[in-house]
Amino acid sequence: MRKLVFYGAITLDGYLARENHSLDWLFGTEGEEEVGYEDFFKTIGTVIMGRKTYEQISEYVPDEFPYKEEDCYVFSRTLSGSNENVTFINEDIVEFTKALKEKEGKNIWVVGGGEVMQPLLEAKLIDEFTVQIAPALIGHGLPLFKAGDYDTRLHLKDVRQYKQFAEMHYELK
């Protein structure tokens, strides 16, 4: 069975982005270019994300969608169909993701935040978390983990330092 993994950076106080979705706290931090993204991405065959994350990625890199070589699914209540980069999914995220995990292939990457993560956490479908902690406190914003009905225990697999970033790699116990 394929693994469903989260990989991403947060502030020390647990935020993925500011409330306006800005990642200004992330860019220009010493070590951001060295966090092992390329090695991680070699393990990925499918990308899933929510509509808001998709729109932010499209805004940050309007000329070159970064996941066009992989199967990319965007969960949305308002968009449907597909374009040259993604397929929009209007069905239940848990059931769709369970079916993806059953297919042959490389790992599945959950890109983005709480709206997509919460139901996957509640269903205990996320197998691994690789989280880089950036040396920033922003006080409020979009949290990595929304409040939810989950109580999940993890096992620490690895800890690394990339200059100013601390990275923790956990797997589901």
**CATH class membership:** Alpha Beta
Task: Catalogue the unreliable spans.
Answer: none
The proportion of strand residues reads 25-35%
Distance between the termini: 16 Å
CATH overall fold name: Dihydrofolate Reductase, subunit A
CATH architecture type: 3-Layer(aba) Sandwich
Q: Which percent bin holds the helix content?
A: 10-25%
> Radius of gyration in whole Å, from Cα?
16 Å
CATH superfamily: Dihydrofolate Reductase, subunit A
Strands in their spatial order, largest beta sheet: 5-4-3-6-1-7-10-9
Biggest sheet details: 8 strands, mixed
Could you tell me the mean pLDDT?
92
- By DSSP, the count of extended strands is 10
Give the tally of structural domains: 1
How would you describe the shape? globular
Instruction: Give the H and E element order.
Output: EEHEHEEHEHEEEE
Q: Give the helix tally.
A: 4
Q: What class, by secondary structure content?
A: alpha/beta
What does it look like?
The chain has 173 residues and is of the alpha/beta class. It has one domain: Dihydrofolate Reductase, subunit A. 20% of the residues lie in helices and 32% in strands. The chain is built from four helices and ten strands, in the order ββαβαββαβαββββ. The strands form two sheets. It has an eight-stranded mixed sheet with strand order 5-4-3-6-1-7-10-9. The chain has a two-stranded antiparallel sheet with strand order 2-8. A hairpin with a 2-residue loop joins β9 (154-162) and β10. It is globular and about 40 Å long.
